[in-house]
Amino acid sequence: MATDTKEKQEIKETTLENTKLSTVKLDWKEGKTQECMKHKNTSRSRGRKIVTALAATSAVASAAFGQATNAPAADPMAALRTDKGLISLTKAAPEMTAVSDYSGDFWHRATLLGDPGGWRNRLYDDGFTVDAQLTQVGQGVVSGGSAAGNGHWQYNGLFEANATMDTAKAGLWSGGLFVLTEQTSFGHPLQNQAGNLSPINATALWPKAYQDSSVLMEYYLAQALPLNTVAIIGRIDPSNFLDQNSFSCSSDNQFLNVSMNSNPLFGRFLTYSTYAALFMTKATENLTVAYGAWTPNTAPGDYGGDWNDVGVGLIPILKYQAFNHPGMIQVIAAYTTKDAVDVDNPRFLPGVITGNPPTKSDNWIVEVSGEQYFWEPQGASVPEADGGRKEDFHVPTQAFASTRPGMGIFYRFSCTPENRSAYDTYVSGGIGGRGVIPGRPYDRFGVGSYWLKQSSDFSSQPGIPLVLGDEVGVEAFYNFAITPALQLSFDVQWIPNPGKQSSDDAVILGTRLNMRF
Question: pTM score, two decimals?
Answer without folding.
Answer: 0.86
